[in-house]
TrEMBL record, chain A:
One Pfam family of this chain: BPD_transp_1
Membrane among keywords: yes
UniProt subcellular location: Cell membrane
Transmembrane segments: 12-34, 68-92, 104-125, 137-156, 193-219, 239-260
GO biological processes: transmembrane transport
Name of the featured protein: Multiple sugar transport system permease protein
GO CC annotations, alphabetized: plasma membrane
Domain of life: Bacteria
UniProtKB/TrEMBL annotation, chain B:
Classification via InterPro entries: ABC_transporter_permease, MetI-like, MetI-like_sf
Domain ABC transmembrane type-1: 80-296
Any coiled-coil regions, as ranges: none
Entry protein name: Multiple sugar transport system permease protein
Domain of life: Bacteria
Native organism: Asanoa ferruginea
Length: 275, 307
């Protein structure tokens, strides 16, 4: 059966149905976002009369999704830059191992990998409140960095371990300090890994809602995902505008997926195969 | 692993030529590691200890005072937390399904079903969407007068109150979670397949093995490590990444039937202002995860050995 053609076509049928079930929810939402309220109430399934963007613009401006969008962009960008910087520095040092305490430090990062956020949520909120970081952008950025740094360090360490030691030796003989080796050799060599890890981290931070809810109580500091949860309460009577808000929040991820699907999948498998 | 830091000739050359002091060079790796270690220790490991410590202190008037195991007693008496634990049990029961679906699909894609490339990228897509967005979309789809019930109605079934019936809601949320995350497991399975020995599959085909036989005797033993990994990560995902869905789709309702420990922690901390009780729930969740993880590993090891 695994070899005959008929069997393969037979398997393709349920898979095709499942593929439709995977795409349909998003198409339905996009369609609703193009409708007027009247169209939606009269018939949920009719295809929107025209490509109308008024729901999108009203979600962007009057609901404040535009502001939340910018908040998310700023926070996620800062968090990813910091994650890549700290992660690659530590990953490089740990990959060179055999300095005193290096294995203990690496194990510490590995242990932190297995602490779910829910387990440290309460004390972290208190630490952030005590340091005055709660409800501030630096505080949220720091919370994201702390959350995804163990994973980043772990991946960068395993990547840098595959770099040929001769390259580093040569750079040292040319008179580079360890910092010079990091800046001139390891950062450029690490580019593919940094890209993969950076995309994954951006996705994680962009999609998060729990950390943002915990760290940013005030409305003007909301990130986009928290904005979506607030939409539900405000627009339960105006489903097309609600759908438009959801679409705005999904759009950047959709674009990222269309262009960088490979790197995302590679990042996921790199984390899996090295584990 | 060669190491460049302790190779004297190289180090001398570098130090001499760069004019950097030997001490500075010896400190360099620590300087590079320090920021990351500070963040990880200060904002992850330290809070973990703090949280366990918290769980033995009081809330409200007894803030900071030591109360022994009172929080844990309150916790296990609370019907909402009992429901949360029952739901964890339900997740464990549903786990094999959540692993089998991506496993089977990955098998078909690996065997080059027509359109396998297309299927791969379509199936992986929901995995990159935020649970919040997925939850919001399914609020529309699972509405009482929504598309899902319309489809059921057309074949003479339903309508089902997906998110309003306490006996159904949890299954609906878990179903959506599986829909949204099976792409991740699928990609991991495909990476595992890449390491599988093709000759074994060819041999099975030559011997005329049926597909179920091939899966049972060749693929499952060959992918035992991948299967273990997917089991553990799927379970961790079920216990720690459903918050967004619960928050958007049901808010723990109807009648508290969709509580999970993580949602309970959030409610006690944020809405009920009982951080110490929430810390106790956190500690219990951590223990559950450790136990489940270790149990699964040992069970799977045994199963793999027997087959």
């Amino acid at each position: 059966m695994s070899g005959n053609r008929g069997g393969r076509w037979l398997a393709a049928l349920p898979m095709g149905i499942l593929a439709v079930a995977t795409i349909y929810p998003l198409l339905f939402t996009a369609n609703v976002a193009m409708k007027t309220r009247r169209e939606y109430v009269l018939d949920r399934f009719s295809v929107a009369g025209a490509v109308r963007l008024d729901n999108i613009t009203s979600a962007w401006t009057s609901v404040g999704m535009g502001r939340y969008f910018l908040n998310s962009v700023v926070v996620v960008t800062a968090a990813v830059v910091l994650l890549l910087l700290l992660g690659s520095m530590a990953g490089f040092a740990l990959s060179q191992s055999r300095f005193r305490g290096s294995s203990v430090l690496f194990l510490g990062c590995l242990a932190a990998l297995f602490i779910p956020f829910q387990v440290i949520m309460v004390p972290l909120a208190r630490v952030m409140a005590d340091t005055g970081l709660i409800d501030t952008y630096p505080g949220l950025v720091l919370a994201y960095v702390a959350q995804f740094l163990p994973f980043t360090v772990f991946l960068m360490t395993s990547y840098y371990r595959t770099v040929a030691p001769e390259i580093i030796d040569a750079a040292r003989i040319d008179g580079n300090s360890l910092y010079g080796v990091y800046r001139r050799i390891m950062l450029p060599i690490g580019a593919p890994a940094l890209l993969s890890v950076g995309i994954l981290n951006a996705l994680f931070c962009w999609n998060d809602v729990l950390i943002a809810l915990l760290m940013m109580p005030s409305a003007e500091h909301r990130t986009l995902m928290v904005g979506v949860t607030a939409l539900r309460g405000q627009y339960s009577a105006n489903i097309p505008t609600f759908a438009a808000g959801v679409l705005i929040a999904a759009a950047p991820v959709l674009l990222l997926y269309l262009f960088l699907q490979r790197q995302i999948a590679d990042g996921v498998t790199a984390g899996a195969t090295k584990g | 692993m060669s190491n460049t830091i302790s190779r004297p000739s190289v180090r001398r050359a570098a130090a001499g030529r760069a004019g950097a002091g030997l001490r500075g060079e010896r400190l360099a790796p620590y300087v590079l590691v320090a920021p990351a270690i500070l963040v990880i220790v200060g904002l992850r490991l330290w809070p973990l200890l703090l949280g366990v410590n918290f769980s033995f202190t009081g809330d409200g008037e007894r803030d900071g005072a030591s109360v022994g195991l009172d929080n844990y007693a309150d916790l296990f008496r609370d019907p909402l937390f009992q429901t949360a634990l029952r739901n964890v049990g339900l997740l464990v029961l549903l786990l094999p399904i959540a692993v089998a679906i991506p496993g089977l699909l990955a098998t078909f894609i690996y065997l080059r079903v027509p359109g396998h490339r297309f299927f791969r990228s379509v199936y992986f897509f929901p995995a990159v969407l935020s649970p919040v967005i997925v939850g919001a979309i399914f609020n529309l789809l699972l509405a009482f007068d929504g598309p899902v019930n319309a489809v059921l109605g057309s074949v003479g079934l339903g309508p089902i109150d997906w998110l309003g019936d306490p006996h159904v809601a949890m299954f609906a949320v878990v179903g959506v979670h599986v829909w949204a995350t099976f792409g991740m497991a699928l990609v991991v399975f495909l990476a595992g397949f890449a390491t599988l020995d093709g000759a074994l599959l060819d041999a099975a085909r030559v011997d005329g093995a049926s597909l179920p036989q091939t899966i049972w005797h060749v693929i499952i033993p060959g992918l035992s490590r991948t299967i273990q990994f997917v089991f553990v990560t799927t379970m961790i995902g079920m216990l720690t990444s459903m918050f967004g869905l619960l928050y958007v789709m049901t808010s723990g309702g109807p009648e508290g039937s969709t509580y999970l420990p993580e949602y309970y922690i959030w409610i006690q901390q944020g809405q009920m202002n009982r951080p110490a009780l929430a810390s106790a729930a956190s500690t219990v969740l951590f223990v559950i995860m450790l136990v489940v993880g270790l149990l699964q590993l040992s069970l799977l090891r045994r199963a793999v050995k027997e087959s």
